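task queued by scheduler; priority normal; single chain, no ligands, no partner chains; default sampling; output format set to structure tokens
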Amino acid sequence: MRIVSADIRVLEVPLRVPFIVSYARYDVMPSVIVSLRTDSGLVGYGEAVPDEHVTGETVESVVAAIAGHLLPALRDTDPRNLNLVHERMDRALVANGAAKAALDIACWDLLGKHAGMPVHALLGGRRPEQPMIAKVLSILPPERVAAQAAEAVSQGFTHLKMKLGSDTEQDVARVAAVRAAVGDGIRIRVDANQGWRDVATARRMIAAIEPFGIDWIEQPIAADDLDGFRRLRPHTNAVIMADEAVITAGDLARLVRDESVDMVNLKLMKSGGILPCQRLATQAELGGLAVQIGSMLETSVSSAAGYHLALAHPNIVSTELSGPVAFSDEPGDLHFPLPYVDITDRPGLGVTLDPAALDRLTVSAKELITE
């Protein structure tokens, strides 16, 4: 089997409410959907959702990387040979995790469709349970985020993830307001997205919010301050998760060596797709760190890819792939009986794309002939 053509579509996917984190506000999410067509007639779908604040990629750079470097490197490569696919992509271009993830995911979709098996079966077999998602709460005034938290609980969510990091005084008030609104039976985790920046501020903030019963604190310091996690560790018993700080195996090895975090948040967009994240999850397991699979707010395509990996890997204990429930319109068809997601046993990713929705959301498109 070989790839004979590819479609690249840039989408703007509308959010139900703005998504606000410490470093940006999004009213729509950019997405690059890639369709790989093979000489056997199969089509595989992949997705890139770049974040210039995390991987340094933009929509424009993703399209350029795929069209100008990655797809040419895969000419005459069997897309089912994922090891060779990544070897050739890595030789053609360093980094560019989101661009590589789009092709990796499409190749897994092709492999599953060719084999007549879901991706999770190809990764070793699924757990029996359906994965659960948390409701992600943007940075808002305390009374507004508390109201959104209460509404989320009424919808069936049992876990909440609060975005923090824009204002330390308001951050404490936000956590207090949400805990008061939802009571003690709802699980709360927080993500500063590097917003507290330095170790001293992180120590103070963790101490201030711990009394409200927090499951874990994600990326409290700057991503490039790996030593900061080591300095922070002796000053708190809170569960600490690294996210933006973990992209490569080298990043993860440093955190394992320092015994400075308890968990890592792996994302297909950061590290290049399912195969690299599977390897990182195993590396984390060997180092004694639990894994969450997160996302950049992706459509059903990349979200399904993350869920397949999470279902198949024993060290992935949490999933935060909530993009489809955050969108008011998207091309895929993942089903969310809250607070769960229904991952089927259909071949490949198990996602069907709606052509009308794709056309409605597309802002630019190009077709590439790879033969």
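post-processing summary
- The chain has two domains: 3-115+354-369, 121-326.
- The longest helix spans residues 97-115.
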